[in-house]
Amino acid sequence: MPRINHQIDDPFLPVRKEQLFTSDNRPSSQYAVMLQQENQEIEVGHVSENYQLVPNETVHQIALDVLSRSNLGFDDAGMIFDGKRYRQRWVLPDLSVEPKKNDIVQLTFDVINSYDGSTTFGLAFNAQRLVCTNGLLLDFLLGGFRFRHFGHDAFPEEMELAVSSLQNLSAQLEPLNSKLQYMIDQPVDRHYIQQAFTDLKLTDKMKANVFMEVEEDTAWGFYNACTHVLSRAGTHHADNINRQVSRYMLS
Questions:
Q1: Which long-range contacts (C-beta less than 8 Å, at least 24 apart) are formed by 20-28?
Q2: For the CA atoms of 108, 109, 115, 120, what is the dihedral angle to 10 degrees?
């Protein structure tokens, strides 16, 4: 069976689990996750028998349901899908802060899912800078929600809890604004940036790209240079580094 060796752009391809067999043709405890693309099936991951495979199309519809029930405004802000992991983002214009005049940061609602067992179906609350659409991976501060009972009787209750989590997100605005304002007021120099590069263990290529994007000598300027480079990369790996940088800058 072919494995992923090229970009898969459509997150809503048909997907299924197929049991694997050992070398002596006995049923294995592992299942292959297969995507149907055109006239071929592509193996995108191995999962256990009990792994709850939720199609991205279903995940997307559930996320829209949560958003609609919240009575908050929302705008599509794009997605990332590599055949294995899926992340769809919506910005929430009703939930925003302005740590600096005309520099607005809106909270975001991300739905995440995987076909390889790397993450469970759930929600993550992050942020996006309006002026340049830089994503700020802040779910370690803003929280999220994991669905654990999809397809079970308890799922409607989980949906209500997810809606409540989203509606309560406004309580995070003031603490977030304070943290961002602190970065705006914190001057940095070349030594600070070099130390941050060392602590974060960034690649030489990323260091060079970030350094070229720094527009002001503050922690906010450096942070936005990092998030600009990482957001433009548009990968799950870049999101992970973004989260690492955010933890470092906002600690």
A1: 20/46
A2: 110
The alpha helices in the chain, defined as continuous H runs, are 56-70, 139-142, 155-167, 173-185, 190-200, 204-213, 219-233, 236-250
Residue 102 to residue 7: CA distance in whole angstroms = 38
Listed in sequence order, the DSSP H helices in 71-189 are: 139-142, 155-167, 173-185
What type of residue sits at position 208? Answer: A
Are the beta carbons of 173 and 95 closer than 8 angstroms? yes
Q: For residue range 69-111, what is the model confidence (pLDDT) as tens digits?
A: 999 999 999 999 999 999 999 999 999 999 999 999 999 999 9
Paired with 45 in beta bridges are 33
Average pLDDT (190-219) is 95
Cβ-contact 166, 72 below 8 angstroms: yes
Determine the Cα–Cα distance for residues 126 and 135; give it in Å rounded to an integer. Answer: 8
pLDDT (tens digit per residue) in 123-178:
999 999 999 999 999 999 999 999 987 878 888 899 999 999 999 999 999 999 99
Q: For residue 192, how many other CB atoms are within 10 A of its CB?
A: 14
Q: Rounded to an integer, what is the distance from CA 223 to the centroid of its chain?
A: 18
CB 83 within 8 A of CB 41: no
Residues near 204 by Cβ (< 8 Å), separated by ≥ 6?
Answer: none
